[in-house]
Structure formats: structure tokens, C-alpha cells
Amino acid sequence: MPFTAVFSAPYRKLSLAGLFFCGLAALGLCSGAKPASAQSLISEMRIGVLAHDVPGLWSGFQLESDAPDINIEVVFAPYLPFLGGRIQPALGASINTGGDTSHAYIDARWQIDGPSGLFFALGLGAAIHDGETDPVSWEKKALGSRVLFHIPVEIGLHLDEHNSISAYFEHTSNAYTQTYNEGMDRIGVRYGYRF
């Protein structure tokens, strides 16, 4: 089923409501906070290539194909200072090039920048996916629910004022809130452009 086909009727209201409330929570964290730039709502854009359903990481095993994912993310400018870094809302998608599970996500993303250009980021949010929720095939993960937790981790280097390169990991699962929770891990590299 293509990602754009959205989901069956029983999940549609739950999925959209869950994504909407996660989005409000992420934006609510930054309400009243200062924008990084008065000229733009967007702080940074990132694009990358990720290995799909990687075994041996948090989820443990692989069922889906080796076709890579294209990851696209927008980090919004409003921020909340926190523990020496900043929390910003981020919106993105990881789209599988082989027709396996793709997802869109919204996160509250915390990033801290070091003096040498190194940065570290960690996030928590929600993802909505077009994969399977129940075990229907030996070649598809049973993800348990349409809306999943999304946990990204990133470490990278600012090359200059605008450009960065990073290693990126993301995990999606329902955290054992459903009968099936096979989870999925992706890992790869991303290029970022900061406005």
C-alpha cells in the first residue's frame, strides 16, 4: 500500500488525532520561545540516505528488504533553551525506495552544539506509517499500531555557518503497548543546511 493512500477507516481517526496531538505537544514546548531567525519559520533542512530495517540494533532483527530510505526533515525556528542546548519542533519522513514501510514523524528535538562544530541531538515524537500492524507476511514487520513512538539520535559536524554532515539513527515502535511490537531501526548519513 503506498504511503499516500493513508490508512484503513478504523485507524484513520486515531492516527490523525494522535499525530495532531503530538504536533501540538511539540509546538507547545516551544510556544512563547524566541525564534532562531525573525525572517523564517524554518531553522534547518536535512536530507539523507538511511539503511532500512537494520538488524542488530534496538529492534534486534530484520524482515524487510535492503532497499534504502530517503529521509527529509525540517527543523522549525522556535526554540526553548534546555540543558545548554535547545528544543525545537521537527517534521520529517523516511520513505523506502523499495515499497516497504515508510513513515512521517513529528518530534520535539533537543540539540546541543559544541565549540568545535560537533553537535549531538536526541528527539522524542510520534510517527505514522504505511506498514503492517499484524503479522501477515514473513517479509514485513508487525509494528502493532498505526501510530508509533519515534526516537531519533544524531551526531554530526557543522562544516561552516550553514552546512553540516551527520550520522543519524531512528527507532520506531509502540513500546509494548500492543500485542505486536517488532519495531524498526534505520541508520545512515544526512546533510543539513541551516538558514
Shape: elongated
Number of strands: 9
Label the CATH architecture. Answer: Beta Barrel
Structural class: mainly beta
Give helix and strand order, one letter per element, not per position. HEEEEEEEEE
The strand line-up of the biggest sheet is 1-2-4-5-6-7-8-9
For the record, the count of structural domains works out to: 1
CATH topology: Porin
What is the radius of gyration computed over CA atoms, rounded to a whole number of angstroms? 17 Å
> How far is the first residue's CA from the last residue's CA?
36 Å
Q: What percentage of amino acids are in beta strands?
A: over 45%
Individual helix count: 1
Mean pLDDT equals 85
Walkthrough of the structure:
The protein is mainly beta and 195 residues long. The protein has a single domain, classed as Porin (Beta Barrel). It has one helix and nine strands; from the N terminus they run αβββββββββ. The protein has one helix at residues 9-29, and strands at residues 42-51, 69-76, 80-82, 85-96, 103-113, 118-129, 147-158, 163-173, 184-194. An eight-stranded antiparallel beta barrel has the order 1-2-4-5-6-7-8-9. The radius of gyration is 17 Å and the shape is elongated. The protein starts with 8 loop residues before the first helix and ends with a strand. Mean pLDDT is 85; it is low at 1-38.
